[in-house]
Design a protein that fits this description.
- The chain is an all-alpha fold.
- Helix content is 67%, strand content 0%.
- The chain folds into two domains: 1-105, Alpha Horseshoe (Serine Threonine Protein Phosphatase 5, Tetratricopeptide repeat); 107-173, no CATH class.
- It has helices spanning 7-12, 15-27, 35-47, 51-63, 71-82, 87-99, 107-119, 123-135, 143-155, 159-171.
Length: 181
């Protein structure tokens, strides 16, 4: 028998414990996936400053899971978590700002957040930062630094980074606008 935590008990739990409960609801570990409850418990923990819960709430709003799709709220939750150093939030915020999907497009801010996540070892952020350096999006173009970040991502098994570096290696060049990016 699966026991679901009572809502009144959950309010008294520490933020980290609330976060673990909501992950169980989101993933369907405690029962069938219940995005409404996951959002509820993520919200409780997020309001207490839990960066992981804030990131998950951002994901829920970005994808319309248990809530109405809302890129502005997604950006706001990602920002709260990213400012606390949460690497997934930094990456997701960078993607949201770089693509402008339903939100404002700001390449310069995207670079800022990709840099922070890349410095923490996030391969996706390293790749995106390398591409932005190679193309000059939101940052002064710098092929040497682009290759450095792409190599870091490739070393972690990032397929697209490996593909771009391989293409450039065959051509013996690094130029923005190459089909490898």
């Amino acid at each position: 028998m699966v026991v679901k935590p009572d809502e009144s008990i959950a309010r008294e739990l520490q933020a980290a414990e609330k976060y673990r409960i909501q992950v169980m609801y989101e993933r369907g570990v405690a029962a069938l996936p219940d995005y409404d409850k996951a959002v509820h418990f993520f919200g409780l923990a997020a309001e207490q400053g839990c960066a992981e819960a804030q990131t998950c709430l951002g994901v829920m709003y970005e994808n319309g899971l248990g809530v109405k799709l809302d890129y502005v709220k997604a950006e706001a939750w990602y920002m709260k978590a990213a400012e606390q150093g949460q690497v997934d939030a930094q990456f997701n915020l960078g993607v949201l700002l770089a693509t402008g999907d339903g939100a404002r497009r700001d390449y310069c801010q995207a670079v800022t957040w990709f840099r922070k996540a890349a410095a923490q070892g996030d391969a996706g952020a390293q790749y995106n930062l390398g591409v932005m350096l190679a193309t000059g999006q939101g940052i002064v173009r710098d092929d040497d630094r682009a290759v450095t970040w792409l190599k870091r991502a490739a070393a972690q098994g990032h397929y697209d980074a490996q593909r771009v570096l391989s293409y450039w290696g065959m051509r013996g060049e690094c130029r923005s606008g190459l089909p490898g990016i």
